[in-house]
Amino acid sequence: MTVRNCGKPRRVTRNDVAELAGVSPAVVSYVINSSKFVSEEKTRAVREAIEELQYRPNMQARGLRINRSMQIAFVCDNLRNDWLEDAEKLLFEKGYYVSHCYSRDGEEFIQMLIARQFDGVFMMSNRFSTAQLNEIAEAGIPIVLYKTRNYGKLNPNIVTLVPDLVDGVIKSVNYLAMKGHERIALIPPLRYKTTGLSDDGFRVRAYMDAMKKNGLSLKEELICTHTESMETICGDVFNMLANSDKDARPTALITGNDYIAVHLIQYIKKLGLRVPDDVAVMGVDNTYLATVVTPQLTTMDFSKEEFSEKLASIMLNLLAGKVPPDEYLKVSIVVRESA
Q1: pLDDT value at position 80?
Q2: Global pTM?
Q3: Are the beta carbons of 150 and 38 closer than 8 angstroms?
Q4: Which residue of 32, 57, 135, 168 sits 20 to 30 Å from the alpha carbon of 243, by its own alpha carbon?
Q5: Rg of the chain over all Cα atoms, to the nearest angstrom
Q6: Residue 279: which of 181, 196, 142, 175 has the closest Cα?
Q7: Residue 276, preceding bond cis, omega within 30 degrees?
Q8: Per residue in 44-72, is it b (16+ CB within 10 Å) or e — as a string?
């Protein structure tokens, strides 16, 4: 809302709210920021004045006063993670605006994150090295990391929040083995760097351990190592399925996420094969994509509500100078038609 001064409109200010509520401007700030105790009577008067004047705090000015931008970046390899909306809402309620950023290669992107002075970053990307993540944290920007691989020594201001992917891979292999599959391929997420069976990453190690415990043989060619793009992933899957040795072809694929799984279901259909009759496919995350594809996707699930609550809580703690412990959420398998 605007008020008029000599016929010219101007923005409603904190002083306008204070005058209407009959309190000082400082009391208005205390109520808005919940920073100090204010009596119930004065709090009610301030809130009624805010509603009547439709007052909106100037977040940019507030950020300058407290040396914060009041902005948080969600950096993702794809922007189809609709389940992050709840975390965004929780942070918004605390006065933070979330910017969704599609990840990009190179130091220039890292410098952009630092130069934009985001207060914090939620990193859900496989693009960046340990050194690059540490560079962001060392610039004073804490990170909540959706950790999908081994990174080595990370800055203390980088806290992990992720579903228990190790348990998810193990449960996926166990389920497929129970259903009679012996040749199970592992398709990591986009830009997940792996050398195959020689990799010491926790996702590949979990796959190998689960295969061995189920008495299944390991095949180097059943791990996708070209994850630069969906095209390169499809190329690896084609080579697996078009193997001249029929007994070497996979009968099931464990993918890195629902996005890849849905793409591969469509690609397998183009090859003239049937899902799950010829090839079973399993995803990760249980996003909306799992139920809009045909056949519907069998996938790994975790509590999105719990994830959002923990993401907001960890981020706010980091911004307050506290370093909470890493969090790994429990996972389960949602059985549908694709496997």
Answers
A1: 65
A2: 0.76
A3: no
A4: 168
A5: 25
A6: 181
A7: yes
A8: ebbeebbeebebebeeeebbeeeebbbbb
Q: For residues 8 and 189, what is the distance between their CA atoms, to the nearest angstrom?
A: 56
Kindly give, in sequence order, each residue whose CB lies less than 8 Å from that of residue 142, ignoring residues fewer than 6 positions away: 120, 121, 157, 158, 159, 315, 318, 319
| pLDDT digit string, tens, across residues 191-209 | 888 888 877 778 899 999 9
Q: Do strands 158-163 and 327-329 pair parallel, antiparallel, or not at all (unpaired)? A: parallel
Cβ atoms 286, 334 nearer than 8 A: yes
Indicate the burial class of 131 (C-beta count within 10 angstroms; 0-12, 13-18, 19 or more).
exposed
Strands 298-301 and 332-334 come out as antiparallel
Q: Write out pLDDT tens, residues 48-82.
A: 988 888 877 665 555 545 456 688 999 988 766 67
Give the whole-angstrom CA distance, residue 246 versus residue 269: 18
- Please check whether residue 69 is in contact with residue 96, taking contact to mean a CB–CB distance below 8 angstroms: no
**Alpha-carbon torsion, ordered 194, 200, 202, 206, to 10 deg:** 100
Peptide bond before 295: cis, by omega within 30 degrees of 0? yes
The two beta strands, 2-5 and 8-11, are: antiparallel
Angle, in degrees to the nearest 10, between helices 25-33 and 14-21: 100
